[in-house]
Amino acid sequence: MLCYNWSMSADPSPTLEDVARVAGVSRATVSRVINETRNVAPEIQEVVRRAVIATGYVPNRAARSLVTRRSDAVGVVVAGTDLSDSLSAGQFLTDPFFGRLLTGIIGALKPRGIFPALMLAENEADDAAITAYFKQGNADGALLISTHPEERLPALLDAVGRPAVRFARPARPAPVSYVDLAHREGGRVAANHLASLGRRRPVAISGPLEIPAAQERQAGYEEGWARAGCAFVPAAEGGFTYDSGERAMKELLDRVPELDAVFAASDLMAQGAIHALHDAGRRVPEDVAVVGFDDSAPARLSRPAITTIRQPLEAMAAEMVRLLLERIDDPGAGPTSVIFDPELIVRESA
Amino acid sequence: MLCYNWSMSADPSPTLEDVARVAGVSRATVSRVINETRNVAPEIQEVVRRAVIATGYVPNRAARSLVTRRSDAVGVVVAGTDLSDSLSAGQFLTDPFFGRLLTGIIGALKPRGIFPALMLAENEADDAAITAYFKQGNADGALLISTHPEERLPALLDAVGRPAVRFARPARPAPVSYVDLAHREGGRVAANHLASLGRRRPVAISGPLEIPAAQERQAGYEEGWARAGCAFVPAAEGGFTYDSGERAMKELLDRVPELDAVFAASDLMAQGAIHALHDAGRRVPEDVAVVGFDDSAPARLSRPAITTIRQPLEAMAAEMVRLLLERIDDPGAGPTSVIFDPELIVRESA
DNA sequence: AAACGATGGGAGAGCGCTCTCCCGTTTTGC
DNA sequence: GCAAAACGGGAGAGCGCTCTCCCATCGTTT
Predict the structure, then answer these.
(1) Which CATH architecture has domain A74-181+313-340?
(2) Helix, strand or coil, per DSSP, at residue A86
């Protein structure tokens, strides 16, 4: 059997005490140098730094947390029960939308040396477990990403004294900061683009209308068309998923055979719609122009590539982190919010 | 301005001491009841439980960690530098493959009440930060998911006494447990399926050949065809991505115009290949049959739906968790490994 | 020259828990 | 029936840090 020098023996990590002894100073002084918490004579700082390196010292987080009452950790909570045919939290992890958000969060957290704990909240038991987790002091605050408009978590977290920042405005007032997109503006941009292409028979595939974002996109789209002289826009409701987009498109083709423009409130639904149109013998974009929403990977990769409304998810994620850390550092502050602008990305489908 | 009863005042959490006082017993007894660490008279247990509920007590994790020297946390490390045109760790997060794995990990960890910390390792600085994180006692062990065959992390983590379980066998011996798929068998199954369809002009789009899994799939595929009487299989190397699949397919169409069967080592590459075939005027599956690998969402959703080799990722993720927790609970144990079987999923493309 | 604040270091308490040791009481074995 | 063992509870040390005091040594002001 192969034998390497692995797992030699984990001799106990050096403590502050050890470093202090090596440096010939007190524990307090070493602590001050490490945390830059008070002036220390430069030559002593140097001695301490050398001792830290010599001993390979690394502070024990549990001990520090015990006294500071901070964990220097944050949680990312993905919430959402499987309502209608919308995404459940579990499925959501495979959504490219989520991947981009997570990438942004991790990147923004990295400079602080913190790695987010990932949690799924799919039911009340999960909510309880997550709340307990925070109450135990495992994390100082939460980043909430939810596919569900009704949420108990903001209130629960607030009750255990943990600030939270939500992606998207909550459906009803809740004790959370949030970061959101100007969805209405996004819908308007989609309508304007389609109108400028000379289309006159628009339809819409909206997201679940109990979600504020879906409502807003739809309202903006209708508003845009109203200004372009089209007062009524037939619409079908989907659940942001591929399948629901396909289904909604079929329904709309039945109801409005003469349609020539589609706005789907997510790229996945746009992809489903395009396939449904294809199956019905319509060409995209020649016969029907399609605009999606999000600018996720499928928009770029599918054929025809989907013209879409881009959400600057990475920047939004970074802002969420900024807001959260700000509230953790200043527990007195209340919730705030930031709204980002959407951007039209023109590709092949419209 | 609206004013709710939010953030009333975070009165300090009750401690063990408080519970003990309420229950009229000692701290030690309460601790024993909570941790079920020794026999306690049933009636006293009952009294203690009542006191815990009455006070709303929840143990402070930092204090516990300080003495147990365990954090009851684990990290999920996503590693991989951007080699050639393979996926970088950041992009990888948007990969459905990763989403499924993560879902499996979170699900398997939930019963233990632990939520994984997510970290990206894209360069040596990240490796150092991650190693320090573990050394600080933030997590007891790591689940490694890498797109990169060369890895420093297993050795680094081992050096700080933290067990690790890797997804996929490491390229060279390393102090990690791992869970993997019988990739060779998967390649063989793909070849057999295509052969049974009557195809006789096979080609392959492999993954990056420095990755063992890609090698094995390719070897199995060639072996399968060899048994079916086809000694030589033209192949092009891709990077598991959509674009690389498209490119490789174009190249193969040039080199082997008469091809009638393609095995792509990932569904994403299969999707790219199908589009390239389509652009070249070939029908799938009538003219060319295509088999992918992974059974990821694109395989199910794209048209034609892709016949593929399924990796039981959720089960594999659960096994990774099991192996890791086992090693955390028994620090004496050495690395082990488990291999899973692939499964052919027949859809439209072959 | 005396009094004073400013500066930089050390001593030591204590964060909330676990766990070893200890001791009184009950059960067991011969 | 009596020693030994087993059981169930309490006391208290101490995990590795931070942070509040406290004190010695300066430099500065009147």
Answers:
(1) 3-Layer(aba) Sandwich (3.40)
(2) coil
